[in-house]
Amino acid sequence: DAGVIQSPRHEVTEMGQEVTLRCKPISGHDYLFWYRQTMMRGLELLIYFNNNVPIDDSGMPEDRFSAKMPNASFSTLKIQPSEPRDSAVYFCASSLARGWLETQYFGPGTRLLVL
Amino acid sequence: DAKTTQPTSMDCAEGRAANLPCNHSTISGNEYVYWYRQIHSQGPQYIIHGLKNNETNEMASLIITEDRKSSTLILPHATLRDTAVYYCIVRVTGTASKLTFGTGTRLQVTL
Fold this sequence. Notes:
The structure holds two protein chains of two kinds.
Chain A: E1 5-7, E2 10-13, E3 19-24, E4 31-38, E5 42-50, E6 53-56, E7 65-71, E8 74-79, E9 88-95, E10 105-106, E11 110-114
Parallel strand pairs in A: 2-11
Antiparallel strand pairs in A: 1-3, 3-8, 4-5, 4-9, 5-6, 7-8, 9-10, 9-11
Chain B: E1 9-13, E2 18-23, E3 32-38, E4 45-50, E5 55-56, E6 61-64, E7 70-75, E8 84-91, E9 105-110
Parallel strand pairs in B: 1-9
Antiparallel strand pairs in B: 2-7, 3-4, 3-8, 5-6, 6-7, 8-9
């Protein structure tokens, strides 16, 4: 199994531009999570899906952020418009239904820099 | 979820046991203790979890005190590849709740 796949691995963009991060979860996993990590705030859960349905988006910082999961094998996290304070590493993770923290598998992350 | 307190950093000689403490004095009866680690530039990796009994797997051992207010993660024979930030998380398994990773303990394994 290839594990959780994220793209791009690195993204540099200018303030105001739209940024789209992509994630392919492990096949058969029915939970998908988006996290953001910064030096100041550590690792934060932004949103998670169960069977492609958003369950809790209370961690999404503001309306500039949106996430979708059109099918079981693909999810996107979009920032529009991007701001310098959005610079962070964004991780996607997936898991099985039971004990979902225990079986969370993280992708390699996307390093986003907004200038 | 209960708050956890961990030392900021620790050193350990290669081949020796690394003992990483975590305080969770406000833990509730149905909350588990989980440990994850994050090696530089990688995503977090699950290590082990437990409720009240000591647990052991191929990676580590978890010792939970009888009052469950603290725990210790033990890496029995630390190697240089164990250098990472270790996170102790306390939460109820299987519930839909927001997760927060703390600042963790930065473990440096040296020759």
